[in-house]
From TrEMBL, chain A:
Protein name: Pyruvate ferredoxin oxidoreductase
Cited Pfam families: PFOR_II, POR_N
Alphabetized SUPFAM superfamilies for the sequence: Thiamin diphosphate-binding fold (THDP-binding), TK C-terminal domain-like
Domain of life: Bacteria
From TrEMBL, chain B:
A Pfam family annotated for this UniProt entry: TPP_enzyme_C
Keyword Metal-binding: no
Keyword Cell inner membrane attached: no
Protein name (Swiss-Prot/TrEMBL): 2-oxoglutarate oxidoreductase
Length: 396, 257
């Protein structure tokens, strides 16, 4: 089979993915490391390679509002942001999910000020886990492109109608180059039909969109919204299967297990660091250690069932967090832990926090995490939340 | 006599005609060749030094290429979120009315995302100085279109030139600000030639003196270059600025009360 592969960055891959989905409106405000995506898209629009309209807005707060305005008349919309920009959008993110506008966004994961930093970690999107958006974290440029296509299918599904955020690690994915296969437009058109929604302004069916609620109905709205996000779990699975049948690539739905079949000790992670963990797993396997990786793809909805299934089979689970919920623990850990607590067997757990503000997480550090998890098994280490490779005096 | 001893004879205090102000630190600047930020920093540092207000001046840096200004001018600094410098400066100046508080903002920071903050600070007539560096582009993020981008100007997000029908008209924010009663001194300067730099310096001095006199807000726009963003050499950038920006952004004082 002839394939169309080109050598592009993660940001560009996202742009190609968006282009294939034929959005009507793209509204964005530039921010490093998202800029290349919006630059490519504006170029595609200006060159006439895309039919949509690119709107230059004065801030992210306006970008998300433009997307809502477009979505409310039935347009497929896209925006992209990162870090400070994503946070500046936060009010609109809740509006968009509450209004059930299936906007798709690319977020280039980047640290959050202060101290001001352009480099990557997951503190931006994880701090917005509760804004009602579906959140997926990708591991490479191909997955970034493919998830744009899947994202519109998931978000626009009639039972879901929920916006979706595709997260790419800043610089590690956005600015590095890979060979990426560009799917055939005709196939994408067949896979992703035109956006139809009952939730739009229409003269045939006049209605108000985006209204106020009172104490007697707000809980009901939020219940329905929660049901819709839960329902997306089935849709995510369906879409991934169909995607594989059409394009030959699959992403294993909510999570991907890597060498977990007979594993005793497993590390859980999200995003690009999973690539490094795979290499370490291979090395330790060769040395005879029964280790594995659980790559969490979706943080919302959360893969509770998948984590529980794994917890029933293994003895120790470590979670890498490129974020910290100050005063407690890493957010991925909190979520994983909540699922683990629902199984009957005891699993040794630990949280490894690091890679903040763009610091690399090395193979040696990951290997060390596996050894610490083994130490937990023979009771020579307590369960704990640990900032690894700290260059500062601790009095713990 | 060797060349070195000859030079050492020349380099002595008596022969000194120009000296970098001590307020300008020795840190190597991260600005690209041809960028105007460096010259503007120098002018501000010199005025603060000459007025002897180093220990009474607080700068509020923006998000943009000049986010690291604290590495270069030896005064107290704080950093605002993108566009919010006038709000931070408002509070600082109201709580420390005897201090000289200024914001230093790019055209993305001030005219785009921070448009509301600057209009309201000007309207309230806060006793601060605002330096507005207009290079017609978002420099730091790699040269995308700003509200100040000229019609037809090529940027990273308008690869075929700004189309005003789609992307809106080029904003003359300084003219808008001059209409607000809270502003006392509103001027547009450049740093293109030594003569322009001298004029700019007079304007900066006047602005800080307005703070002394508690006159209200002084606003200095400086039309500048962004060689990297414009994809031109430093010399070409100056030419481009003269040919395209000066006719649109006419230099001169709009208000002096
Ligand atoms: C809320 C938010 N949105 C976007 C950005 C990304 N950003 C950083 S600097 C900048 C624009 C800088 O342009 P300008 O103000 O003209 O200053 P210059 O760099 O040209 O001096 C942008 C959009 C950000 N830091 N925060």
């Amino acid at each position: 089979m002839k394939t169309n592969k080109i050598f592009i960055s993660g940001d560009e891959a996202a742009a190609y993915g968006v282009k294939l989905c034929r959005p009507h409106v793209i509204a964005a405000y530039p921010i490093t490391p998202q800029t290349i995506t919006v630059e490519r898209l504006s170029e595609m629009v200006e060159k006439g390679e895309m039919d949509g309209e690119y709107m230059h807005v004065e801030s992210e707060h306006s970008a998300i509002s433009v997307c809502m305005g477009a979505s409310s008349v039935g347009a497929r919309t896209f925006t992209a942001s990162s870090s400070q920009g994503l946070l500046y959008m936060a009010e609109g993110l809740h509006y968009a999910s509450g209004g059930r506008y299936p906007i798709v966004m690319m977020n280039a994961n980047r640290s959050v000020a202060l101290p001001w930093s352009i480099y990557g970690d997951h503190r931006d999107s994880l701090s917005l886990l509760d804004c009602g958006w579906i959140q997926v974290y990708v591991e490479d440029a191909q997955e970034a492109l493919d998830m744009m296509i899947q994202a519109y299918r998931i978000a626009e599904h009639k039972d879901v109608l929920t916006p979706m955020m595709v997260n790419l690690d800043g610089f590690i994915l956005t600015h590095t180059y890979e060979l990426v296969e560009i799917p055939d437009q005709q196939k994408v058109d067949e896979f992703l039909p035109a956006f139809v929604t009952p939730n739009k302004m229409s003269f045939e069916e006049p209605k108000n969109l985006a209204f106020s609620s009172k104490p007697d109905d707000n809980t009901e709205f939020k219940y329905q919204q929660n049901q819709a996000v839960l329902k997306s779990i089935d849709v995510i699975k369906e879409v991934d299967q169909e995607f594989e049948a059409t394009f030959g690539r699959k992403y294993h739905d909510m999570v991907e297990e890597y060498r977990c079949e007979d594993a005793e000790v497993v590390l859980v992670a999200i995003g690009s660091v999973c690539g490094t963990v795979r290499v370490v797993v291979d090395k330790l396997r060769e040395e005879g250690m029964k280790v594995g990786l659980l790559k969490i793809r979706f943080m919302r909805p959360f893969p509770e069932q998948e984590v529980k299934d794994l917890a029933k089979r293994v003895k120790a689970i470590g979670v890498i967090d490129k974020d910290i919920s100050f005063g407690y623990e890493g957010t991925v850990y909190t979520n994983v832990n909540s699922a683990i607590s629902k199984v009957e067997n005891y699993v040794y757990k630990s949280n490894f926090i690091g890679g903040l503000g763009g610091r690399d997480i090395t193979k040696a550090e990951i290997e060390d995490m596996f050894h610490k998890l083994y130490a937990g098994l023979d009771k020579s280490r307590e369960e704990k939340v640990e900032f690894f490779s700290l260059n500062v005096e601790t009095n713990e | 006599m060797t060349a070195t001893t000859e030079i050492n004879k020349i380099i002595n205090e008596d022969n000194l005609v120009y000296k970098k102000t001590n307020l300008l630190l020795d840190n190597e600047m991260h600005y690209c060749p041809g960028c105007t930020h460096g010259v503007i920093h120098k002018v501000i540092a010199e005025v603060i030094d000459e007025m002897d207000i180093q220990n009474e001046t607080i700068g509020v840096s923006p998000v943009g290429c000049s986010v690291l200004a604290y590495n270069y001018i030896d005064i107290d600094w704080q950093e605002a979120a993108h566009g919010r410098a006038p709000a931070l400066a408002t509070a600082t100046s109201r709580l420390m009315p005897e201090k000289y508080v200024f914001t230093y903002q790019g055209d993305g920071d001030l005219a785009s995302i921070g448009c509301a903050e600057i209009i309201h600070a000007c309207n309230r007539g806060e006793n601060i100085v605002v330096f507005f560096v207009n290079n017609a582009i978002y420099g730091m993020t790699g040269g995308q279109m700003a509200p100040t981008t000229l019609e037809g100007q090529v940027t990273a997000t308008t690869p075929y030139g700004r189309n005003t029908a789609l992307n809106g008209h080029t904003m003359k924010i300084t003219e808008m600000i001059a209409l607000l009663p809270g502003t006392r001194y509103v001027t547009r300067q450049s740093a293109e030639t030594p003569a322009a730099v001298r004029k700019l310096k007079k304007a900066v001095r006047k602005a800080f003196e307005n703070t002394t006199e508690k006159k209200g807000l002084s606003f200095i726009e400086i039309v500048g270059t962004c060689s990297s963003g414009w994809k031109l050499t430093p010399t070409q950038s100056n030419e481009w600025m003269k040919e395209n920006m000066f006719p649109f952004y006419q230099l001169g004082t709009l208000k002096d009360e």
